[in-house]
Amino acid sequence: xxxxxxxxxxxxxxxxxxxxxxxxxxxxxxxxxxxxxxxxxxxxxxxxxxxxxxxxxxxxxxxxxxxxxxxxxxxxxxxxxxxxxxxxxxxxxxxxxxxxxxxxxxxxxxxxxxxxxxxxxxxxxxxxxxxxxxxxxxxxxxxxxxxxxxxxxxxxxxxxxxxxxxxxxxxxxxxxxxxxxxxxxxxxxxxxxxxxxxx
Length: 199
What we know:
It comes from Halocynthiibacter halioticoli. The chain has helices at about 10-20, 25-100, 105-115, 130-140, 175-199; strands at about 125-130, 150, 160-165, 170-175. The chain is α+β, with helices and mostly antiparallel strands. A 4-stranded mixed beta sheet has the order 2-1-3-4.
Protein backbone atom coordinates (compact mmCIF):
# COMPACT_ATOMS: atom_id res chain seq x y z
CA UNK A 1 0.00 0.00 0.00
CA UNK A 2 1.08 3.42 -0.62
CA UNK A 3 1.70 6.03 1.94
CA UNK A 4 -0.65 8.89 2.30
CA UNK A 5 0.56 12.08 0.75
CA UNK A 6 2.03 14.48 3.26
CA UNK A 7 2.33 18.10 2.34
CA UNK A 8 4.47 20.69 4.05
CA UNK A 9 2.66 23.25 6.15
CA UNK A 10 3.74 26.75 5.17
CA UNK A 11 1.59 28.67 7.57
CA UNK A 12 3.18 31.81 8.94
CA UNK A 13 2.49 31.13 12.57
CA UNK A 14 4.53 28.02 12.63
CA UNK A 15 7.49 29.66 10.92
CA UNK A 16 7.41 32.64 13.27
CA UNK A 17 7.33 30.35 16.22
CA UNK A 18 10.30 28.45 14.87
CA UNK A 19 12.23 31.67 14.16
CA UNK A 20 11.33 33.20 17.48
CA UNK A 21 12.54 30.11 19.20
CA UNK A 22 15.84 30.27 17.43
CA UNK A 23 16.59 34.03 18.00
CA UNK A 24 17.51 35.51 21.34
CA UNK A 25 15.08 38.03 22.86
CA UNK A 26 17.39 41.03 22.26
CA UNK A 27 17.63 40.16 18.57
CA UNK A 28 13.86 39.78 18.33
CA UNK A 29 13.43 43.22 19.91
CA UNK A 30 15.93 44.70 17.45
CA UNK A 31 14.07 43.24 14.49
CA UNK A 32 10.75 44.50 15.84
CA UNK A 33 12.16 48.03 16.39
CA UNK A 34 13.76 48.05 12.92
CA UNK A 35 10.42 47.08 11.36
CA UNK A 36 8.66 49.79 13.37
CA UNK A 37 11.27 52.41 12.31
CA UNK A 38 11.00 51.35 8.68
CA UNK A 39 7.18 51.64 8.78
CA UNK A 40 7.37 54.98 10.56
CA UNK A 41 9.89 56.29 8.00
CA UNK A 42 7.73 55.14 5.08
CA UNK A 43 4.67 56.82 6.62
CA UNK A 44 6.63 60.04 7.20
CA UNK A 45 7.88 60.06 3.59
CA UNK A 46 4.31 59.56 2.34
CA UNK A 47 3.16 62.46 4.51
CA UNK A 48 5.94 64.76 3.25
CA UNK A 49 5.22 63.81 -0.37
CA UNK A 50 1.49 64.49 0.11
CA UNK A 51 2.27 67.85 1.76
CA UNK A 52 4.61 68.86 -1.08
CA UNK A 53 1.97 67.85 -3.61
CA UNK A 54 -0.63 69.97 -1.77
CA UNK A 55 1.76 72.95 -1.60
CA UNK A 56 2.49 72.69 -5.33
CA UNK A 57 -1.23 72.52 -6.14
CA UNK A 58 -2.01 75.49 -3.86
CA UNK A 59 0.83 77.53 -5.39
CA UNK A 60 -0.39 76.78 -8.92
CA UNK A 61 -3.98 77.74 -8.01
CA UNK A 62 -2.79 80.95 -6.33
CA UNK A 63 -0.69 81.88 -9.37
CA UNK A 64 -3.67 81.22 -11.64
CA UNK A 65 -5.99 83.33 -9.45
CA UNK A 66 -3.47 86.18 -9.28
CA UNK A 67 -3.09 86.07 -13.06
CA UNK A 68 -6.87 86.30 -13.49
CA UNK A 69 -7.04 89.11 -10.92
CA UNK A 70 -4.26 91.01 -12.69
CA UNK A 71 -6.06 90.68 -16.01
CA UNK A 72 -9.32 91.88 -14.40
CA UNK A 73 -7.48 94.83 -12.83
CA UNK A 74 -6.01 95.85 -16.19
CA UNK A 75 -9.42 95.53 -17.87
CA UNK A 76 -11.02 97.75 -15.19
CA UNK A 77 -8.17 100.27 -15.35
CA UNK A 78 -8.39 100.38 -19.13
CA UNK A 79 -12.15 100.90 -18.99
CA UNK A 80 -11.84 103.75 -16.47
CA UNK A 81 -9.07 105.45 -18.45
CA UNK A 82 -11.01 105.07 -21.70
CA UNK A 83 -14.01 106.79 -20.14
CA UNK A 84 -11.78 109.54 -18.68
CA UNK A 85 -9.85 110.13 -21.89
CA UNK A 86 -12.31 112.54 -23.56
CA UNK A 87 -12.81 114.48 -20.31
CA UNK A 88 -9.07 114.85 -19.66
CA UNK A 89 -8.41 115.85 -23.25
CA UNK A 90 -11.13 118.52 -23.06
CA UNK A 91 -9.70 119.80 -19.77
CA UNK A 92 -6.14 119.98 -21.08
CA UNK A 93 -7.16 121.21 -24.51
CA UNK A 94 -9.88 123.74 -23.71
CA UNK A 95 -10.46 124.45 -20.03
CA UNK A 96 -6.89 124.79 -18.74
CA UNK A 97 -5.74 127.12 -21.51
CA UNK A 98 -8.83 129.29 -21.03
CA UNK A 99 -8.33 129.48 -17.25
CA UNK A 100 -4.63 130.09 -17.66
CA UNK A 101 -5.14 132.87 -20.18
CA UNK A 102 -7.71 134.52 -17.89
CA UNK A 103 -5.17 134.63 -15.06
CA UNK A 104 -2.14 135.05 -17.32
CA UNK A 105 -1.98 138.80 -16.77
CA UNK A 106 -1.75 138.37 -13.00
CA UNK A 107 1.01 135.80 -13.45
CA UNK A 108 3.05 138.12 -15.65
CA UNK A 109 2.64 141.00 -13.19
CA UNK A 110 3.71 138.76 -10.28
CA UNK A 111 6.81 137.67 -12.18
CA UNK A 112 7.58 141.27 -13.12
CA UNK A 113 7.28 142.34 -9.47
CA UNK A 114 9.58 139.53 -8.40
CA UNK A 115 12.08 140.54 -11.07
CA UNK A 116 11.98 144.21 -10.07
CA UNK A 117 12.05 143.56 -6.33
CA UNK A 118 14.57 145.87 -4.68
CA UNK A 119 15.23 148.06 -7.73
CA UNK A 120 14.06 151.59 -8.26
CA UNK A 121 12.91 153.47 -11.33
CA UNK A 122 14.12 150.86 -13.82
CA UNK A 123 11.19 149.93 -16.04
CA UNK A 124 10.26 146.32 -16.64
CA UNK A 125 9.76 145.53 -20.32
CA UNK A 126 6.99 143.09 -21.09
CA UNK A 127 7.53 141.67 -24.58
CA UNK A 128 4.63 139.68 -26.05
CA UNK A 129 2.33 139.34 -29.05
CA UNK A 130 -0.57 141.79 -29.38
CA UNK A 131 -3.13 139.14 -28.34
CA UNK A 132 -1.16 138.34 -25.19
CA UNK A 133 -0.63 142.03 -24.36
CA UNK A 134 -4.42 142.49 -24.46
CA UNK A 135 -4.71 139.88 -21.68
CA UNK A 136 -1.86 141.38 -19.62
CA UNK A 137 -2.68 145.10 -19.79
CA UNK A 138 -5.79 145.03 -17.52
CA UNK A 139 -3.84 143.24 -14.78
CA UNK A 140 -0.93 145.66 -14.99
CA UNK A 141 -3.17 148.63 -14.20
CA UNK A 142 -3.55 147.22 -10.66
CA UNK A 143 0.15 147.81 -9.99
CA UNK A 144 0.96 151.51 -10.16
CA UNK A 145 4.20 151.35 -8.18
CA UNK A 146 6.01 149.39 -10.88
CA UNK A 147 7.05 151.13 -14.11
CA UNK A 148 6.04 148.81 -16.95
CA UNK A 149 6.76 149.12 -20.66
CA UNK A 150 4.86 147.00 -23.14
CA UNK A 151 6.66 145.93 -26.31
CA UNK A 152 4.77 144.14 -29.05
CA UNK A 153 6.62 141.25 -30.72
CA UNK A 154 4.55 139.58 -33.48
CA UNK A 155 6.89 136.56 -33.71
CA UNK A 156 5.85 135.40 -30.21
CA UNK A 157 2.89 133.06 -29.85
CA UNK A 158 -0.09 133.44 -27.58
CA UNK A 159 1.00 132.74 -24.01
CA UNK A 160 4.67 133.56 -24.64
CA UNK A 161 6.13 136.52 -22.74
CA UNK A 162 9.62 137.86 -22.09
CA UNK A 163 10.21 140.01 -19.02
CA UNK A 164 13.29 142.22 -19.28
CA UNK A 165 14.65 144.11 -16.34
CA UNK A 166 17.94 145.76 -17.01
CA UNK A 167 20.37 143.01 -18.07
CA UNK A 168 18.23 140.12 -16.82
CA UNK A 169 15.48 138.44 -18.78
CA UNK A 170 12.91 135.80 -17.91
CA UNK A 171 10.64 133.83 -20.26
CA UNK A 172 7.10 132.69 -19.54
CA UNK A 173 5.72 130.17 -22.03
CA UNK A 174 2.29 128.83 -21.14
CA UNK A 175 1.85 127.15 -24.53
CA UNK A 176 4.82 124.82 -23.99
CA UNK A 177 3.42 123.89 -20.56
CA UNK A 178 0.09 122.92 -22.13
CA UNK A 179 1.83 121.02 -24.92
CA UNK A 180 3.72 119.08 -22.25
CA UNK A 181 0.49 118.34 -20.36
CA UNK A 182 -1.21 117.18 -23.58
CA UNK A 183 1.75 114.92 -24.40
CA UNK A 184 1.58 113.39 -20.93
CA UNK A 185 -2.18 112.76 -21.22
CA UNK A 186 -1.80 111.32 -24.74
CA UNK A 187 1.11 109.17 -23.56
CA UNK A 188 -0.98 107.87 -20.67
CA UNK A 189 -3.70 106.63 -23.00
CA UNK A 190 -1.25 105.25 -25.57
CA UNK A 191 0.60 103.37 -22.82
CA UNK A 192 -2.66 102.02 -21.41
CA UNK A 193 -3.80 100.89 -24.86
CA UNK A 194 -0.55 98.97 -25.27
CA UNK A 195 -1.02 97.29 -21.89
CA UNK A 196 -4.50 96.11 -22.79
CA UNK A 197 -3.44 94.96 -26.24
CA UNK A 198 -0.52 93.00 -24.81
CA UNK A 199 -2.63 92.03 -21.74
